[in-house]
Design a protein that fits this description.
The chain is α+β, with helices and mostly antiparallel strands. It contains 3 helices and 5 strands; from the N terminus they run αααβββββ. The N and C termini lie far apart (86 Å).
């Protein structure tokens, strides 16, 4: 089946369709145009079954929904990274190798995670093994210290 005439058709842009895109994508209207061109140019002696058209439409819809889901997950991860960056400012961090540490003075959200800037000028990526603590200079109380459950304390 020849769809070259459809693919070589010049695209006219109107103010409504002119949008910046990261990569060329096939939207729903373009898919329908291709499907109609496929129907018009099919071999009349061996036409496609209607179930094949429905399968193509269902597959396209599934891909479209997957793309939308991926965009929503990316937005959720970005929000999570922003919250993480905000919560780290003022905390003491030590790298997993124990070679770098300090108080976080700033945090930067990157595509691959969160990078923190320490008070000593060092930078490090937030990741597995990073030790994070309060900036009190004292270790957190061990388990069982600080009062038992059910005990009343008076001031």
């Amino acid at each position: 089946m020849d769809v070259g005439s459809v693919l070589n058709t010049p695209k006219t842009e109107t103010p409504e369709t002119k949008q910046p895109t990261a990569a060329p994508t096939l939207d729903y209207n373009a898919f329908l145009h291709l499907l109609i061109a496929q129907m018009r140019n099919q071999d009349p002696m061996e036409p496609m079954k209607s179930s094949d058209y429905v399968a193509q439409l269902a597959t396209f819809s599934q891909v479209e929904k997957t793309i939308q889901t991926n965009e929503r997950v990316a937005a959720l991860l970005n929000t999570n990274n922003l919250l993480l960056a905000e919560s780290l400012v003022g905390k003491t961090v030590i790298s997993s190798e124990n070679d770098t540490g300090g108080v976080v003075v700033a945090a930067k959200v990157l595509d691959n995670g969160v990078m923190v800037l320490l008070d000593n000028g060092a930078e490090m990526m937030v990741g597995p093994g990073l030790i994070i603590g309060d900036n009190t200079g004292q270790p957190p109380p061990a388990e069982g210290e600080g009062g038992e459950e059910g005990e009343e304390t008076t001031a």
